[in-house]
Here is the input.
Amino acid sequence: MEKLLHVINNWASIRKYKEKDIPLEVLKRILEAARLAPSWANTQPWHFIVVKDKSKKEILKEVALNQKFIDKANTIVVCCADFSAWKNENRLKEMNKLWKVLGRTSDESEMKKYLENPVMNPALRGEQVLLARQYEQLSLAIAFMILQAKHEGVGSCIIGGFYNHVTGGDLELYKRVVDELKLPDHLLILTMVTLGYPDEDPDRRPRKPFEEIVSFEEFGNKY
Ligand SMILES: Cc1cc2nc3c(=O)[nH]c(=O)nc-3n(C[C@H](O)[C@H](O)[C@H](O)COP(=O)(O)O)c2cc1C
Here is the structure.
């Protein structure tokens, strides 16, 4: 337990990388950590594209407002929301598997009833709500990914500052990325993660004190 907190305590985003290549098996373990992350009713609404190609990395840098360090990373993981995962037929498939494991009777009509409830089916609440849920799911997978990377001695930085249909900006550039990565329509890039062996050891960025962000039983009560 303490060991994990120690890893977390040493967390810092890394923006300077050595030339050293990240071996395939290390990258696969980093991606495996993302695959194993929890998600809404096990929807797993994500797809990750591992980019190592120099010219592709340059375009990713451009779409990310030319943040200079991006194409210097050994690898960029392009993290996409997969909207098809929220379609009822796909949700039913995953729910079937999940309910079996949970020992619940996988009665299709009961599952369909469940999917008629907007609380359980954010797709019924419209695009904005679904998008919020998408960020939520991807964040968990990315958290798992960057912690595994740290554990492997690989530095990373989450990139949210880039043009897409959520942030706006140069959507033609985003379209170029879509073409370059051959992204199907049901995928939308929400985040990128740069990966590489650290060539810096930055000071830890400050966090709010524990007492400021945690209360006991009611707001403002010290824990
Ligand atoms: C959702 C998200 C988006 C981010 N986007 C960027 C980004 O576009 N460029 C960048 O350099 N850092 C980005 N960061 C990294 C943060 O700036 C960084 O995590 C924060 O300043 C705290 O520093 P630390 O990670 O070193 O502790 C992002 C972090 C998160 C969680």
About this structure: The longest strand covers residues 187-196. The pocket of flavin mononucleotide is lined by residues 11-13, 67, 157-161, 205 (CB under 6 Å).
